[in-house]
Every structure is written in structure tokens, then in C-alpha cells.
Specification:
The protein has 70 residues and is mainly alpha-helical. Helices cover 89% and strands 0% of the residues. Helix 1 packs across helix 2. The model has no long low-confidence stretch (mean pLDDT 86).
Length: 70
């Protein structure tokens, strides 16, 4: 295993572990359902939407906007 692979694995473990740490501290303040909604909204708006726009553009999203909205 090369050093870059080890560095990527460590970065992934910090990101993944940090998410659980923040969920544990934020869930009592917000509650479980708002936390799930916030995680899904942030994941879709900050990760999936830019990735979709970069790969396919707006045409497929316009054609199936109801499904995307749901």
C-alpha cells in the first residue's frame, strides 16, 4: 500500500467518524427526524446536485423534475 492510499484512508476515516461525533452531539438538540432531514438535504444539495450538474447537466433534471423533487 502506497503512502497516498494510507493518507486517503485516514482522511476518509476522519470524515466518517466525525459525522457520527457531530450527530451524537446534535441529535439531542434537534431530535432524530430533523437531523435525518438536514443530513439528506445537505447531502443532496451539496454533493449530489453539483455532481449531477457536472455529469449530465440540467436536461435530465428538467425532464424528470417531479421525481427529482420527491
Amino acid at each position: 500500500m502506497r503512502p497516498i492510499h494510507i493518507a486517503r484512508l485516514l482522511l476518509l476515516s476522519f470524515l466518517w467518524g466525525g459525522a457520527y461525533l457531530f450527530m451524537r452531539s446534535a441529535a439531542p438538540a434537534f431530535g432524530p427526524f430533523p437531523m435525518v432531514f438536514l443530513r439528506m438535504a445537505m447531502g443532496s444539495l451539496l454533493v449530489l446536485l453539483p455532481l449531477t450538474l457536472w455529469r449530465t447537466g440540467l436536461a435530465p433534471m428538467r425532464a424528470y423534475w417531479r421525481g427529482v423533487l420527491i
